[in-house]
Design a protein that fits this description.
360 residues; alpha/beta; Spore Coat Polysaccharide Biosynthesis Protein SpsA, Chain A; Ribosomal Protein S8, Chain: A, domain 1; seven-stranded mixed sheet; four-stranded mixed sheet; 10 helices
């Protein structure tokens, strides 16, 4: 059967481990008999240990990549899983998804009818906080990340998800668009095989990723419209040896250079950062808090809720002031440093510090 020649691939980085159980158990409840592969892309070591134990208890594969401190890339994480899969077919999904049926029964019949290369999608529905499936909202055909089934060879031939897309999404939309441009048939499964997206609190939108990430993703999407990427270092798995800075984190004391909010906006700042090489091979750039914490932050949250109707009617949005040091570093400084003697780097979870490891 198709489902027994299939690997369901999903990714995680520092998320609630219970979601792993929910996804796998929902599939097994619907008699889905596929392999599962969780790709842990850059989680903290304590979380990674928890995920590995959960996977062991569930009897599914666990694959860790040494990408802590690097920009989140769901595209690369999924490619890593596709590359590691040992089945003819692969399904890519999300750790927040819940199966409500066995879509592979329909796919089995459709494959007999469809000749040529084909990718199969299931419609995603957003669950409310209480999990009431009757009140779930359809995510629409642009939300292709909930369930995608195809032959592994197609992904290998076309280079998989575009790994230039980091932080902000669009990798699913871009991949589907590229598949179509390479004459891969697109088939949507029936509503009976819809898949549900489990509710979770929204992250502080834009705060935990550089503000340029959305534009970078759009640039990749537009580029692929005219000249689709075919070759890339498909799903490469980073090893500990390729991340030398990880040995320093938590064990060595770095030379610290502190910056006030928005200091990095100055074009002279690159020289200041380069001078840190003279102090130590291991350096910490303290970028100051991304947003204001404590009482002021709490007041902002309350004010935002109270004033939301007013700002909605006015067509405006209330947002706190963001320190853009990390944005300047990520979009301008880091690309320049990567062409110098920088061996490795590590970005803190809150984007408030960046650690550098220079060549000796």
């Amino acid at each position: 059967m198709i489902q027994e020649e299939n690997t369901i691939i999903f990714t995680i980085r520092d998320r609630d481990g219970e979601r792993i159980k929910s996804l796998v158990e929902s599939a097994r409840k619907n008699d889905i008999r596929s392999q599962f592969l969780l790709v842990d892309y850059g989680s903290q070591s304590t979380n990674s240990a928890n995920y590995e134990n959960i996977c062991k208890d569930l009897g599914i594969r666990y694959l860790k990549t040494y990408t802590e401190g690097l920009p989140w890339s769901r595209a690369r994480a999924l490619n890593t899983g596709i590359r590691a899969a040992n089945t003819k077919y692969v399904t890519t999904t999300d750790v927040d998804m819940l199966f409500n049926s066995n879509p592979y029964e329909e796919i089995e019949n459709l494959i007999k009818q469809n000749s040529g290369k084909t990718v199969y999608y299931a419609m995603s529905y957003w669950l409310p906080k209480n999990g009431d499936k009757g009140k779930a909202k359809c995510a629409g055909i642009s939300a292709k990340g909930g369930f995608q089934f195809l032959e592994k060879s197609i992904a290998e031939e076309l280079g998989g998800y575009d790994e230039h897309i980091k932080y902000w999404g669009m990798e699913d939309l871009d991949w589907g668009n590229r598949l179509q441009k390479h004459d891969v048939n697109i088939v949507w499964l029936s509503e009976a095989n819809r898949i549900f997206h489990k509710w979770h609190p929204n992250a502080e939108t834009g705060f935990l990723r550089p503000y340029t990430a959305e534009y970078d993703s759009m640039r990749s999407f537009c580029r692929n419209n005219f000249n689709p990427i075919l070759e890339q270092d498909f799903g490469k798995i980073l090893t500990q040896e390729e991340r030398p800075i990880l040995k320093y984190m938590g064990t060595e004391t770095p030379f610290e250079r502190q910056f006030n909010a928005n200091d990095l906006e100055c074009f002279l700042i690159l020289d200041e950062i380069l001078k840190t090489r003279e102090q130590n091979t291991f350096v910490k750039l303290s970028l100051s808090p991304r947003i204001k914490k404590g009482l002021l932050r709490i007041k902002h949250s309350i004010l935002k809720k109270l004033s939301k109707p007013i700002y909605f009617l006015a067509g405006e949005e209330l947002s706190p002031t963001v320190n853009k040091n990390f944005d300047f570093f990520y979009s301008s400084v880091l690309p320049a440093l990567e062409k110098t003697q920088l061996r490795d780097y590590y970005i803190s979870q809150e984007l408030e510090a960046v650690y550098l490891l220079w060549d000796k």
